[in-house]
Design a protein that fits this description.
Layout: H1 3-17, H2 19-45, H3 48-63, E1 75-77, E2 82-85, E3 98-100, H4 115-124, H5 134-141, H6 152-172, H7 177-180, H8 185-190, H9 195-198, E4 202-206, E5 212-216, H10 218-226, E6 232-240, H11 241-252, H12 261-264
Helix pairs in contact: 1-2, 4-10, 6-10
Length: 282
Amino acid sequence: MSLSRQLRRIYEVQKSQGNREAFNRAVKQKKISTSKKLHRIRRWIISDWDFLRFRLWKQSLLGGYDAIADPFKTIWISPTEIRYLSSKNRPDQYAVGKIEGGDWDQNCERFVDMYIFKCLSDRFVHGKEWSETKFIQDCLYRHRTWRGCETPREIYNRCRQMDELYKKIDREGFKPTEIMMNGDPKSAIKNGGDITEHLDNIMVDIGRDGQFLFVDGKHRLSIAKILDIDKIPANILVRHKEWQTVREEVAQASSADELNDRTYNYLQHPDIADIVPNTGHQ
C-alpha cells in the first residue's frame, strides 16, 4: 500500500472511529512495515533456515527446553477451535518456532468480529452481492484496501477470486502445504526459500492454556468456518512459555500416571500428539 493510501486510510479511520483507533492503526501498519524490512535485511545476512536453526538451538540451550516441536509439523484441527486472534503484542509474523512468555495471549479479539469474516458471511451465507457488503463498500468509497487492491476493477477481480476459492474449498476441501506445493517445505527452505512462502497452511499461535490463536489465512479460515469443514491443516508459529512447560512435562513422563490432572487433560491436544507415546497413553 502506498504511503498516501495509508495516510488516507488512517484519516478515514480517525473520522469514523476516533483518534485512538487511528493511532492504533498507524502503529500497527508501522510495526508490519518495519518487520518486513527487517526480515528482508536479515535474509541478506543469514538464510531463513540458518536463522531458524539458531533460534531453536538458543531456546534449547538457554531456555532448557527438550520438547521443542518441529516448526514444520502440520496439525489438523477443527476451525471451531480457532476462536480468537493472536494479540497485536505477539512476536512478529516471522517468529516461526518461537517460545514466548508474557500476556500476548490474553484479552484477544474474536475471529468472527473480523471485517473479512463478516464480509464473506454476507456473501456466502446471506447471499448478498459483493457491492452490498460493508467491507467492499469501504474499499470502493472509503480508501480501504484489500491485499493491495485499490481500484474498483482490482477489488472486483479479488471478489471473483474469492468466489472461486469458496467453490474450490467446497469441492475439494483443504490440502496441506506439502501437497499443494508438491514438495516438502522444509527442503525448500533449506535450499534458500523464504519461510513465509513455504509455510502456507492456516497459521496459529498457542496460548498458555493450549488455545489456538489465529495469525494468518483469514480468507481460508473464514470459508472453512462458513462451510463447517471438519478439520483443516495448520502450522504453529509461537507457543506461550507456559504451554511449552506442558509439553516438557508430557515428554519427561514415563507414563500418564506421573502427570498432574491439568497436564493429563491435555493429552488429546493436537500439539501434544508428537510426544504422547512417551506417556504410554493412547
